[in-house]
Write a structure and sequence with these properties.
Layout (H helix, E strand, L loop, with lengths): L18 H9 L4 H7 L4 H12 L3 H26 L1 E2 L5 E3 L3 H12 L20 H9 L1
Antiparallel strand pairs: 1-2
Helix pairs in contact: 1-4, 4-5
């Protein structure tokens, strides 16, 4: 038996972050807090491991690419919903969603519901001769 000093197996065991699991959770748009909770670690612990192993803050890791996969998938799904999906024979598997088309038009093309027509009091007036007025009166 040893007196004092380090004992073999003493202390907290090193934590290993499964980055494959983290990446999968990011692909379904989980937040950093949700990922930390899923891994049963504190967010600060996840952030410090990211700094050590990935050389960046966890928030930067989220922004750096894996989360973009989710955004691409979401855009693809929105496009399919807006335009509809047809099989090779032209039959609708999913019909187009007009509301989604309008929303995407506003978001990506800068379209709006505003009516830009302006009305003024300078509307052209039609001048009729007395003869023309009399002929209208006869109708």
């Amino acid at each position: 038996m040893k007196n004092g000093g380090k004992r073999e197996g003493a202390g907290r065991k090193p934590l290993k972050i499964d980055w494959g699991t983290v990446d999968k959770l990011l692909m379904i748009a989980c937040t950093g807090e949700e990922i930390a909770s899923y891994l049963s670690v504190n967010y600060d612990t996840l952030n410090s491991h990211c700094k050590k192993e990935k050389s960046c803050d966890f928030s930067d890791y989220i922004k750096s690419g894996i989360n973009k996969t989710f955004k691409v998938s979401l855009r693809r799904a929105q496009r399919a919903m807006a335009l509809g999906v047809q099989d090779s024979d032209g039959n609708w598997l999913e019909k187009p969603n007009v509301s989604m088309l309008i929303w995407l038009g506003k978001q990506t093309l800068g379209q709006s519901d505003k009516n830009n027509m302006e009305f003024t009091d300078n509307t052209p007036q039609i001048k009729l001769t007395q003869e023309e007025k009399d002929s209208f009166d006869k109708l």
